[in-house]
Amino acid sequence: MNIVVCVKYVPDAQSDRSFNEADNTTDREGVEGLLSELDEYAVEEALKIAEAGEGEVTVVTVGPEQAVNAVKKALQMGAHKAVHVSDEAIHGSDAAATSLILAEAVKKAAGDGTPDLVITGMSSTDGVMGVVPAMLAERLGLPQVTYASELTLHGDKVSIRRDGDAASETIESTLPALVSVTDQINEPRYPSFKGIMAAKKKPVETWSLADLGVDAGRVGLDAAWTKVTSFAKRPPREQGQLVTDEGDGGTKLAEFLSAQKFL
Hints:
Layout: E1 2-6, E2 9-11, E3 33-35, H1 37-52, E4 56-62, H2 68-77, E5 81-85, H3 95-109, E6 117-121, H4 132-140, E7 144-148, E8 150-154, E9 157-163, E10 168-174, E11 177-181, H5 193-199, E12 204-207, H6 209-212, H7 249-259
Parallel strand pairs: 1-4, 1-6, 4-5, 5-12, 6-11, 7-11
Antiparallel strand pairs: 2-3, 8-9, 9-10
Helix pairs in contact: 2-5, 3-4
Protein name: Electron transfer flavoprotein subunit beta
Keywords: Electron transport, Transport
Subunit structure: Heterodimer of an alpha and a beta subunit.
């Protein structure tokens, strides 16, 4: 089975994240980054499927030079090969442009065809939009089964369980298909020393927009449908109000909560 996993390199949530002052885009180069945590579940699920039978897992990412670290982490986990799409013209691309680039990369990675299964995370931990999987499925002409908390393959079909607030649904699709998974589906493995050493010998291809046949005019900040017009750092937290309890602390607390309309 030919499985392609789309992953993203995102700024570390523990770092001081910001925007570029020149064009109001997310700073992805002047900050520590890593493989999006939600994408680790997609990689793990693909590896489990491949290990249960005969399969090959290819991971694909789009981003600046440092984004290659996202696919390297996936290779350390056990993926077989990786693709990094890197081109200066991609900077500032929105979800629509990103799905276009990913679609062409997925087709090329599958040998100019369609893989048996495309797996993604439910969303990225930086943008948190969750729309790219649906856009990607549309561009690839694949059925999409999203927000999977459980995934089962049987013959030429894939079945997932989607857990909602009020009920769990079972959804089935024929293959090939695109599946997005949640953080409930598995427990991603940590790269072992053996996996880290083996990853150094695994192929990582770097493709440009020209390699994919994508017109640079269709991607990037100038082609984006939405843009950040301004940004400002969050103001520092102010010191809270201290109430000295002189026997009437409860009354003062109730008055404060009432004034703030919490009561």
